[in-house]
Amino acid sequence: MSYHTSIWPLAAVLISLLGAIPIMLSDRRPNLRESWTILIAFTKVMIVASMLPTVLNGGGFVFTIAEVIPNVPIELRVDAMGMFFALVASILWLFTSLYSIGYMRALDEHDQTRYFASFAVAISATLGVAFSANLLTLYLFYEMLSLSTYPLVTHHNDAEAKTSGRKYLTYILGTSIGLALPAMLIVYSFAGTLDFKIGGILAGTGATPQTLALVLILFLFGFAKAGLMPFHGWLPAAMVAPTPVSAFLHGVAVVKVGVFSILRVIFHIFGPDLLFEVNLGVVITTIASITILTASLVALTQDNLKRRLAYSTIGQLAYMILGAGMLTAAGMTGGLLHIAMHAFGKITLFFCAGAIYVAAGKKYISQMDGLGRRMPLTYLAFMLGSISIIGMPPLGGFISKWNLVIGAVNGDQLILLLVLLTSTLLNAAYFMPIVYRGFFAKAADPVFDEGIKEAPLFCLVPLLATACASMTLFFYPDIFLRLAKLALFP
Amino acid sequence: MTTSNLHMYVMAVPLITAMFVNMLGRISPKYVAPLTLGALGFSSLASLGVLRQVLEYGGYSYTVGNWAPPMGIELVIDPLSALMLLLISVVSLLATLSALPMVAKEQAGKEHLFFTLYLILIAGLMGLVMTGDAFNLYVLLEITSITTYGLIAMGKGRAPLASFNYVIMGSVGACFYLLGVGYLYILTGSLNMADIASILPQLGGGAAVATALGFILVGLWIKMALFPLHGWLPNAYSLAPTGAGLLVAPLMTKVSIYLMIRVMFSVFGADYLFVQNPLVQSGMVWLASAGIICASCMALAQRNLKRMLTYIIVAEVGYMVGGVWLANSIGMTGAILHIVNDALMTLCLFLVVAAIAYRTGSLEFDNLRGIYKRMPITMAAFTVGAFSMIGVPPTAGFFSKWYLILGGIEAGHWEYVIALLFSSLINAVLFFRIIEIAYFDGRGEQGKIQRDEAPLIMQGPLVLTAVALIAIGLGSGPLVQGIIKLALPAGF
Amino acid sequence: MEDFLAIIVAKYNYWLYVVLMMIGFYAMIGKRNLVKKLIGMNIFQTAIILMFVSAGAKFNATIPILNKYEVLKHGADATKVVNPLPHVLMLTAIVVGVSVTGVALAILIRVYREYGTLEEDEILEKLGQ
Q: Is B477–A73 a contact, with Cβ atoms under 8 angstroms apart?
């Protein structure tokens, strides 16, 4: 694979970082500020898309920002795996920007400038993670993401938001400094480099299986954004943030950055062969399986819609790690694909939750009886999103889950198959009642519900669009599939 | 030997200017600022020249008054001392910019006295990093200490008392150092560091050499406030006038660590310290680790920003001492890089302290509510400084910590690795606690908080330092390869 | 015991300085009066100064003031003169010590003006209020 030196990866990362400046400067003119946001989001998608053909042809781009440590520069590199994630993130950011405008204006939120500026920095960091050429660069952007999302979590400025913000930072910073950083240093002291390389860099460095196991566990828990239990507690807490934040950051960017980091480590630091050789896949799959089942069970008990979605996310994230941990071709492909498939599905669900809150002011599932008849389009999208997450055709989620199932079978890991099937049932059990009650149950407060209409267009259009996209991905998963294959088996 | 004597001007100009500041400042305080800034500006440029010269042609030694060593006093200009020289002059220049309005406000009418001491202190620090003579080092150590006592005693309230405690502790430290030098002199009959270093191996160790080393090190540890000898520092630094804290806090402990490195490797040699006494070596790493953890915990208990920072300084001393005693080149690289980074980080945070003190007069946490709205630029710089202290990439603090931890891993000193990680986490708690108070509290009464930034002369160095923290972080590759690799003591 | 006494007698001057140093140290740590602490510090310094000075001493040697012409003609006999270098160094050390004492006394005057006392207990009591 050949990489051209190019400024484009840097441009893709920087545009929204620099974009935060005009956003902050147009503090007093909301229309101008929002135009900036959309302009930047759109440009970003364009830049990322412009690099797509080269990547699909097996090429890539590279840009070195600074030489900081021997053999470890701060470097951006666009490869298939990074492109995969960047594409998902930048497209969904565009939708989220539109949605944010509708949501924030409808609720007349305070400090919108801080909100949009932090958001712009966060998406920069996300793309930075996607395009990182080595672990140090990834760590840099990972931390940048943690810090830029802190003001978003604490957006409401009240006691609850502050408590959640504290919890968020404790989990995320605590694990990244306390676990991921030493793991990275141990890797560096063995391999002398941190470069992401197909097949890994740890093979043949003389690290004992015990050390490898320790490093792997440090990484799995150190990237706590992936929400592997027991380091998942920040995600439900972070749900106090405004819904677009939950939707994009805690449904897509932040959590997927965690998963993406772990997958990078599994694929390009350890290498599947090394993990297979020392039989460490089972460590990954065990932790992931426990998380999947526990999170799904907990999700059943949540009445707050966003919290239920949060627990669902925790479970789904573990799917991706489970897939990677199977160490079979189909399993790894499925794990990677699930990043995209879940992203489109889950963001739809969060958008719907937000739309319901904007239109009806309701947060709890028990109050949403009969709401589907008032907001049929929102509920339709919600249903499509649920089906995608459950993993049934004709939605995108099916493709990734199918690959996971094949991966489990190919690897003769029947117990994992059982985990997948059980969890699918649980997914259905916590999503379907919401849809059912929305359409068929009798409204609890018919008089009040009379006045409820669909959310504003700025909210409604993005959520319908992502729902449609989710369905499109079932029929045309081609680009993502090719990128995943390129990333894993070049 | 080169004939260049640029480094003499670096030191002499502040020293001579100190006299003029005292005389002309009596006539009118308006002479103080241009004189001080001019002298330090010159020193900064000249020390940059010295560093370039050293990097290009290698280090050299200079004999004061043309008396050949070992009789005469020798100044040693090698990459490490040239780097320290640059650090001292630049940090003091930036600190002075901010100290000028601060002193005019806090010590009105005494500016000339304040800046006389201030400049002598800077000249003393510069002398310390250059000297190659063990007794000369003692004299310069006392020059810097006496000026610091005076500067601290100019503070209000309890400051004289804190300063007196510092006098007692500092003198004990200096006496210990002198005692150790006495031992060395009796053993070798020389005071020149290089000369002692060439004679010592012939003596083959023994109790007397060990005692000399012990006295010298304990003396320096008191001066650098290494845990558990740090008792004097928090009071002295937090009660010092803000203007004095700006200079003293970033530089004093760092220069003492430089002195420790100098004495350890230019006099005793790595072989004697690490190979012949492995127990002492690992004991020191343990002590430094304990110091890092204890000082971090004590910082948690503080409710005043400046006091909290003083405990962080004590913890940071543990970082560098541990790094030096790890006895490998990565740890040593980390320690030297951290001297530079920590000086700038501490400067950044103390500049913030000065800016806040200038506007609000109080640094209690309770009074920092909503300060982000009031002083956004100051607090943005604070955030950068805080991130650097926590060790968030790409700020400078991350990279020195990287080398230090890596050194700890290579040396197998896991207690040191854990102490560093622990202290990073505690720093995160410490600083986010302030960020939370300063950012989110008191936003209820939004309309009331008006923007009220510190004057430009205070903001300038602040922003510059914050930018430098990121620039040094990103440029740490060339910095390490180009300068610090050359500055490592012989044997690394 | 005999050996121990022999060691002490052989280098009795150094042992005296150790005693002196301990007295000074005790005063710095144990005394509650700030001036006494300062005096303790001075005793401590004096002990070290004396140690240096006696390092330069020799039996049957005289002061290092020599006749220039004699020296040029016959050379100097190093065993006949005491080593002047430690004395010179200690002159500097005395100057340093005096400066420190001066600064410390000035600080104590400020402390006295502030609290009206130099007893540490009383100052701490006043601070407590």
A: yes
Residue B428 to residue A188, Cβ atoms within 8 A: no
What residue ranges of chain A have pLDDT lower than 70?
1, 444-451
Q: What is the reported pLDDT for B272?
A: 78
Q: Delimit the domains of chain C by residue range.
A: 2-128
Q: Do B474 and A66 touch (CB under 8 A)?
A: yes
CATH class of C2-128: mainly alpha
**Would an 8 Å CB–CB cutoff place B477 in contact with chain A?**
yes
Q: Check if the beta carbon of residue B160 is closer than 8 Å to that of residue C110.
A: yes
In whole angstroms, give the CA distance from residue C10 to residue C18: 14
Residues recorded for chain B: 492
Supply A432's token pair. Answer: 């379907």
**For the segment A187-211, what is each residue's pLDDT rounded down to a tens digit?**
998 888 888 888 888 887 878 888 8
From the list B143, A3, B105, A420, the residue with the least C-alpha distance to C99 is: B143
Mutate to test the interface with C, among B148, B171, B190 (most CBs of C within 10 A): B171
Q: Is C73 on the interface with B (CB under 8 A)?
A: no
What band does B350 get if pLDDT is binned at 50, 70 and 90?
very high
B286-299 pLDDT, tens per residue? 999 999 999 999 99
- Pairwise CB contact (< 8 Å): B394 & A151: no
Residues A100-133: tens digit of each pLDDT: 887 777 777 777 777 888 888 888 899 999 999 8
The predicted-structure confidence for B249-274, as pLDDT tens digits, reads as follows: 999 999 999 999 988 888 888 777 77
* pLDDT per residue as tens digits for the range A349-387: 888 888 888 887 778 888 777 777 778 888 888 888 888
Do B142 and C106 make contact, defined as CB atoms within 8 angstroms? no
Q: Which residue in chain C is spatially nearest to B142 when comparing CA positions?
A: C96
Query: Hunting for tokens 């610091």 — which residue is that?
Result: B148
**CA quadruple B78, B80, B81, B85: dihedral sign:** positive
User: What secondary structure does DSSP assign to A124-176, as a single string?
Assistant: HHHHHHHTBSBHHHHHHHHHHHHHHHHHHHTTT-SHHHHHHHHHHHHHHHHHI
For residue B399, the distance in angstroms to the closest alpha carbon of chain C comes to 40
* Interchain CB distance below 8 Å, A189 and B409: yes
User: B425 at the A interface (CB within 8 A)?
Assistant: yes
Distance CA B256, CA B316 (A): 13
Residues of chain C contacting residue B150, judged by C-beta atoms under 8 Å apart: 103
- Residue B1: the pLDDT is 43
For chain C, positions 38-57, list CB contacts with chain B under 8 A: 38, 41, 44-45, 48, 51-52, 55
CB contact under 8 A, B164 and C104: yes
For residue B84, which amino acid is it?
M
Residue B140 burial (10 A CB sphere; 0-12, 13-18, 19+): buried
Tokens 């103390």, located at residue? B350
Cis peptide before B70 (omega within 30 of 0): yes
Whether the CB-CB separation of C17 and C83 falls below 8 Å is answered with no
pLDDT tens track for B96-118 = 999 888 888 888 788 888 899 99
Nearest Cβ partner of B168 from C41, C96, C99? C41
CB contact under 8 A, B149 and C104: yes
**B358: its two tokens:** 């200038």
CB A350 within 8 A of CB A251: yes
In single-letter form, the type of residue at position B377 comes to I
Please, what is the angle between helix B456-474 and helix B329-360, to 10°? 160
Predicted pLDDT of residue A449: 63
Least reliable range by pLDDT among A223-232, A418-427, B366-375, C82-91:
B366-375
Q: Which of A68, A154, A182 sits opposite B399 (nearest CB)?
A: A68
Query: Could you say which of C51, C103, C127 has the minimum Cβ distance to residue B182?
Result: C51
Average pLDDT over residues C26-32: 87
